[in-house]
Write a structure and sequence with these properties.
406 residues, mainly alpha, elongated
Length: 406
């Protein structure tokens, strides 16, 4: 059970590491992305060595009991060192002098962590009292071994300090980024850090209770590992959100926009670009580019058919739509959908009204915030494109046009 869970999470984490590493190789100057790769790799290694079978198999291979725990905790320390470097970079300030100071302090911080960890590993090597494997209860099995306790206490001190710093900094940094996916990722990362501090607290309390003669195995071997596992998942989610979030959003836009795009471009294929850029590739390639392209091509169709739409058609649509108590967003979507269908219908039969509409576009964004609202607006247009209300309005427009012609 534990093997399956931890190995699955480990595989997923290493897939995330590979994805981020590819992005970093494309932009080697992005130090923060490189640190994110390093920290994510640390978490991924923790998951792998947490699998009891892999833990024991590694120890059998090297012939040293519980050496896997050193590699597991070393991976956590790598994460902690990366967190400290990020902290120093983010708080360095502007200017070359500030960046130089940050680099110097980062080297000092990494050096101090490396020195402390060398002392901790030495404590493990000297104080390991037996050759019994303890993949699930290592911290409670050696509470009477000073060397191992030194190893564990230094590990918790390094890890806890980095979690506290990163958990405090991430929300402050996210507040500057508004509602972006990076801000959301930082907040999730902060939640993982604070939950990781609960793990550290459980371990320290467990040590104290064991030394006082009241061991609480349920706390050290139950609550602590559970909180650590959930914290690691949150940390991975925090690292993945800035990359995954926009792609998921783009996929949702595509899923909602594609039916409308296919319908309107079927009659005006000249506005569409060559689809060879993504043909033959897996369906999640270039999601954002494809979503942007679909929206732009829908807009091109709308601008091309405006002379085929009666100048007062949108006013008539809005008047009929208000009678069914729609909100402003729904009103705009209904008006645009009806105008789009009317324009395509008139164009198909070659009808050009005496007075064409100046525009059939009701909402059009320019900056990033407006662009997101425009996507949602066009998605609503797609949702109501074949609604009964549109059919009713189009029937009225057809009847009025027929009367005027006669």
């Amino acid at each position: 059970m534990f093997d399956v869970v931890y190995l699955c999470f480990g595989a997923a984490a290493w897939a995330l590491v590979a994805y981020k590493a590819v992005a970093w190789f494309r932009d080697r100057s992005n130090t923060d992305l490189g640190l994110a790769c390093l920290m994510t790799g640390g978490v991924a290694t923790v998951f792998l060595f947490s699998a009891p079978s892999l833990y024991r198999g590694f120890d059998r291979l090297v012939g040293v009991a519980n050496l896997a725990m050193v590699f597991l905790y070393s991976s956590v320390v790598v994460f902690a060192a990366g967190a400290l470097v990020l902290l120093l970079r983010w708080t360095a300030g502007e200017g070359e002098a500030a960046r130089t100071r940050a680099r110097t302090r980062a080297r000092v911080a990494v050096g101090v962590v490396a020195l402390l960890w060398a002392v901790a590993v030495t404590g493990f090597a000297v104080g390991r009292p037996d050759a019994v494997e303890h993949p699930r209860d290592f911290s409670t099995a050696y509470t009477d071994a000073p060397g191992v306790m030194l190893f564990l206490v230094l590990y918790l001190a390094i890890f806890g300090a980095s979690l506290a710093c990163l958990g405090t900094l991430c929300p402050r940094y996210a507040a500057r980024l508004g509602g972006s996916w990076l801000a959301r990722g930082l907040r999730v990362l902060a939640a993982g850090c604070w939950l990781g501090l609960i793990y550290c607290a459980c371990k320290v309390i467990g040590f104290a209770l064991s030394w006082a003669g009241h061991p609480a195995l349920w706390l050290s071997n139950g609550v602590a590992p559970l909180s650590a596992s959930v914290a690691a998942i949150l940390v991975l989610a925090g690292f993945s959100l800035p990359a995954a979030g926009p792609r998921v959003a783009a996929w949702r836009r595509l899923r909602r926009l594609t039916p409308l795009w296919r319908t309107v471009t079927a009659q005006t294929p000249e506005v569409t670009m060559d689809g060879s850029r993504w043909s033959g590739r897996w369906p999640f390639a270039d999601l954002e580019w494809r979503a942007n392209r679909q929206m732009a091509e829908i807009r091109d169709v709308q601008r091309g058919i405006r002379r085929h739409v009666e100048s007062d058609a949108i006013d008539i649509v809005l008047e009929r739509a208000r009678a069914v108590s729609l909100d402003d967003g729904q009103l705009a979507a209904v008006a645009e959908a009806a105008a789009l269908r009317r324009g395509l219908e008139n164009r198909a039969v070659g009808h050009v009204p005496v007075h064409g509409a100046d525009s059939v576009v009701v909402a059009e964004g320019r900056d990033a915030t407006e662009l997101a609202a425009e996507y949602e607006h066009l998605a609503l247009v797609a949702d109501v494109y074949h609604s009964p209300l549109i059919e009713t309005v189009l029937t009225e427009l057809r009847q009025r046009s027929a009367t005027m012609r006669s």
